[in-house]
Amino acid sequence: MTDLLLRDARVWGHETLTDLLIRDGVVAATGQDLSADGAHVEGLGGKLLLPGFVDAHAHVDKTMWGGPWVPHDAGPGLMGKIRNGVERRDEIGLPSVNYITALLQQMIVSGTTHVRSHVDVDTTMGLAAVDAVREAVARLDGRISMEMVAFPQAGLLISPGTAELMDKALAGGVELVGGIDPAGLEHDPVRHLDTVFGLAEKHGAGVDIHLHDGGPLGVWQYDLIIDRALALGLQGKVTISHGYALGEVPVAEQDRVIARLAEAGIGLATVAPASAAPLPLVRLREAGVPVGAGNDGVRDLWSPYGNGDMLERALFLAQRSRFVRDEEIEIALEAATYGGARLSGRRAGFAVGDPGDFVAVDVRTPAEAVCVRPVRSLVVKGGRVVAREGRLV
Question: What is the full DSSP assignment across 210-258?
Fold first, then answer.
């Protein structure tokens, strides 16, 4: 692999222009006027350099990106969307390796270098979605990395046989075990969590649970998940996705739960939904609870919206949180970069040893990048230039 020297970058958090030398996929040196010494040089001319974006909550297997427009016709509520997705996917040809590849390409040119995708596992489709996502990632030849969550979208307990398929997916290398609304959908939170955490313990896997249930019911499930993580010593390996309830209860209750999340090393993933109370990002940050951001589904049978752009997602997160000051807007950008990396157990940043995953944009400040969302001038994955001026390389 040829070394890469990024010259004259305006590095997030640094006052002066900086060079970064990337060798064997990681940052090998930083400073001013570094010697190229045979490295390929990319002059940034003062462009802002950010860590590569991490999409911490995606459903790439469901996407119809690059295909014909399909009008949204799902019924109301969570079960309406679940049924619509299961009933119509064969008709539309989902999961489609071509659609997944097209979406991942869009993510790459938008600056995303790593994705955590929940991938449907159910008794009518088996592991077809897992196989399709793997094939799409392989087509992109290292331009983006992926970790998958074996996700029981149609339910775990209410769909007998799903647990066995998830066990098979994890045995085959899927990195995390998923869950969904142990109380609101499954109506048996103890047995649901027994199954999810049992699979995690068996395979040494991480856990990422969709929790849409709101208010006191949702907070009660927060406590159940925290108890499991502490009992099994899974600090740093458990994520609660969505977690609307935390934004819906009184501040004193929020603070109690946040303290427990910090103790248990549990992170949160949010998609900045327009219809739910936002997570208390400032207090979560102060407590050291990692928060990642993600695009959720992009143009699929659940929603016609989305474009895979994590800068846009950071904008939505800032707006939903009513952030207006630069330092506040940067908290939303942290969720799209450092926060997602922490959830995935990855390093991110500009220090020696950090991954050579970066995105350069022609703006003066991180807050401006979020608000303007310029074309990504350069995207680097593992020290390799993978996109330039909005086009795949």
Answer: EE---HHHHHHHHHHHHHHHHHHT-TTSEEEEE-GGGGTS-HHHHHHHH
pLDDT of residue 275: 87
- On whether the CB atoms of residues 121 and 162 are closer than 8 A, the answer is yes
Rg of the chain on CA atoms, in Å? 20
48 bridge partner residues:
10, 361
State the first-to-last Cα distance of the chain, in angstroms, to the nearest integer: 16
For all residues of the chain together, what is the average pLDDT?
A: 97
Whether residue 182 is preceded by a cis peptide bond, meaning omega within 30 degrees of 0, is no
Three-state DSSP class for 384? strand
Task: Please tell me the pTM assigned to this model.
Answer: 0.97
Q: pLDDT by residue (tens digit) across 283-332?
A: 999 999 999 999 999 999 999 999 999 999 999 999 999 999 999 999 99
Helix (H, G, I), strand (E, B) or coil at 131: helix
73-81 own/partner pairs: CB under 8 Å, 24+ apart: 74/301, 74/302, 78/181, 78/184, 78/185, 78/212, 79/185, 81/301, 81/302
Is 127 in a helix, a strand, or coil? Answer: coil
Q: How far apart are CA 106 and CA 131, in angstroms?
A: 20
pLDDT score at 1: 76
Greatest alpha-carbon pair distance for the chain in Å reads 62
Among the listed residues 83, 85, 97, the one whose alpha carbon sits nearest the alpha carbon of residue 130: 97
C-beta separation of 221 from 243 below 8 A: no
Rounded distance, CA 53 to CA 108, Å? 9
Separation CA 347–CA 350 (nearest Å):
10
Residues 118-156 as b/e (b if ≥16 CB within 10 A, e otherwise) read bbbbbeebebbbbebbbebbeebeebbbbbbbbbbbbbb
User: C-alpha angle 237/238/239, rounded to 5°?
Assistant: 130
Q: Can you give the pLDDT at residue 76?
A: 87
φ, ψ of residue 155 to 5 degrees: the values are 105, 155
Q: Is 360 helix (H, G, I), strand (E, B) or coil?
A: strand
Please check whether residue 372 is in contact with residue 363, taking contact to mean a CB–CB distance below 8 angstroms. Answer: yes
Residue type for 2, please?
Answer: T
